[in-house]
Amino acid sequence: MQKILIVEDEEKIARFVELELKHEGYDVEKAYDGRTGLALAENGGYDLILLDIMLPGINGIEILRRIRRSSDVPVIMLTARDAVMDKVSGLDMGADDYITKPFAIEELLARIRVTLRKNSASAADTKSAVLHCCGLTLDSNRFKVTYNGVPIELTAKEFALLQTLMQNKNIVMSRDSLLTNVWGYNYIGETNVVDVYIRYLRQKIDEKFKTKIITTVRGVGYVIKED
Ligand code: CA
């Protein structure tokens, strides 16, 4: 069950949101002041935090600032109408979204769903961001490639081409599908661009490290094979 923390000093609003969230199947805890909210948030274990800005004790912006020192937990700020500065500083501090009070509960629920989904998607992305194959390690978050630990400098297109081949290892990729994957459907230019970039990759990897990683399949395309 996903767990949400509500930090909101207007008890009526906090209770109403709590009821609605529980009805939607979320586990809910709430705090009515800044200090309690910060203490609960710092203890962690929440999938999302709804954070009011105007709070007794410590305000929401300060709470967010402290949470962000150690946590990426998704935070949706609750702001007063027209408090543009609050929205700006909240987003600057790393809030994921904000909603203006008074809000329709359906809108809040929708924003919670979107934020939770985005967050779980980016967690999955981070996991799959590092590819390994044939001594090569490709980290797409940090835009880094190494061969047996030795860094390889690649241009953006070379990187994307190698990434596509590694993601599809042991699958022969036609020139067309490489073109679409790396250069996009709207690419207008020489169709031999794939061969040109394969040659660049071979110079930087196969020739430099005296290995044979990218295989040509005559009449079809290219493949990186690994048993
Ligand atoms: Ca308030």
Explained architecture:
This protein is an alpha/beta fold and 227 residues long. 44% of the residues lie in helices and 22% in strands. The protein contains 8 helices and 12 strands. It has helices at 11-23, 34-43, 60-67, 84-92, 105-128, 156-167, 175-183, 193-207; strands at residues 3-7, 27-31, 48-52, 75-80, 97-101, 130-133, 136-139, 144-147, 150-152, 173-174, 214-217, 221-224. It has a 5-stranded parallel sheet, with helices on both faces. A 4-stranded antiparallel sheet has the order 6-7-8-9. Helix 2 runs parallel beside helix 3, helix 6 (156-167) packs across helix 7 and helix 6 (156-167) crosses helix 8 (193-207). It is elongated and about 70 Å long. 26% of the residues are buried. The model has no long low-confidence stretch (mean pLDDT 89). It binds calcium ion. Calcium ion is lined by residues 9-10, 52, 54-55. Calcium ion binds at residues 9-10, 52, 54-55.
